[in-house]
């Protein structure tokens, strides 16, 4: 059975657990951590560095401040839309996402587990209360008007996948950190799992349950390079749940997967929607499939 037929066959069987990664959002203008060769291109700040001192948090927030102005304008792309349609048709069990951009939900997916959090919130490391990221942004602007003006100049620097940019150190003045509105701590951080942090165990257990109840694990736009996602593929393999990989580059799960589809997500998913649901609104059904 060719890849296209196999994918349609797995989708028609239902209870497909989708796991998504950064590759799903590259068409929305958000870059991937890794290139097609699987090599990590950037080294984000670890939580230990973040906790260690106000200087690290000043650097983090000043970069994140600039990155957020662009990150928040990203829109779902057709691949997000296709997945939302498959979910709407009742074929998906859930979507576990390693992305922190909230784009799957904005495309209409409802059952989304955010494994690594969401950049749209900030959380206090002292009292664990959360606040809206936009509120933090406004506070930061109010507290640091000179930096905010300088930051305008940094807007065209490359954006990192975690919403950060490589900002010139000279732009980081004496940043005043935004404090937690509940307890006053300055240990406010974006509500995402930073490097060196773990995904909360109840969330991991819930995902393992989803794997066990699924008929297929479909990995979309992720090389599964980090263990936080790879372990679910390993569990699926142990339970003999078929694993379909969908990404253009390397995958850590090559050896345990049933299939690896190395084609652009939006094409493969569009074909899948045609094959399984019959049509895609707003497109010329099937005529561009090219095979
Ligand atoms: Zn607090």
From TrEMBL:
Keywords: Metal-binding, NAD, Transferase, Zinc. Residues 1-275 form the Deacetylase sirtuin-type domain. It is an enzyme of class 2 (transferase). The active site is at residue 116. Its EC number is 2.3.1.286. One of its GO terms (molecular function) is histone deacetylase activity, NAD-dependent. Zn(2+) binds at residues 124, 127, 180, 183. The keyword Metal-binding applies. The keyword NAD applies. This is protein acetyllysine N-acetyltransferase. It comes from Calidifontibacter indicus.
């Amino acid at each position: 059975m060719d890849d296209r037929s196999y994918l349609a066959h797995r989708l028609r069987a239902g209870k497909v657990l989708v796991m998504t990664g950064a590759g799903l959002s590259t068409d929305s203008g958000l870059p991937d951590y890794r290139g097609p060769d699987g090599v990590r291109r950037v080294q984000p700040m670890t939580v230990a560095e973040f906790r260690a001192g106000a200087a690290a948090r000043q650097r983090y927030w000043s970069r994140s401040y600039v990155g957020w102005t662009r990150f928040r304008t990203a829109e779902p792309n057709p691949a997000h839309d296709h997945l939302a349609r498959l979910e709407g048709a009742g074929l998906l069990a859930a979507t576990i996402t390693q992305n922190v951009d909230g784009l799957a939900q904005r495309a209409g997916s409802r059952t989304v587990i955010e494994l690594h959090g969401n950049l749209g919130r900030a959380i206090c490391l002292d009292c664990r209360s959360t606040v809206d990221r936009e509120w933090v942004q406004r506070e930061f602007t109010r507290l640091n008007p000179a930096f905010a003006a300088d930051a305008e100049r940094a807007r065209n620097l490359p954006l990192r996948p975690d919403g950060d940019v490589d900002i010139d150190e000279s732009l980081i003045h004496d940043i005043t950190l935004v404090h937690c509105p509940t307890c006053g701590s300055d240990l406010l951080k974006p509500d995402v799992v930073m490097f060196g942090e773990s995904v909360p165990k109840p969330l991991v257990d819930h995902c393992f349950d989803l794997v066990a109840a699924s008929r297929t694990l479909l990995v979309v736009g992720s090389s599964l390079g980090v263990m936080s996602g790879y372990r679910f593929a390993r569990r699926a393999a142990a339970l003999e749940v078929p694993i379909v990989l969908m990404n253009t580059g390397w995958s850590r799960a090559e050896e345990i997967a049933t299939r690896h589809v190395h084609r652009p997500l939006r094409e493969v998913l569009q074909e899948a929607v045609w094959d399984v649901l019959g049509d895609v609104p707003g497109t010329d059904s099937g005529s561009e499939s090219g095979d």
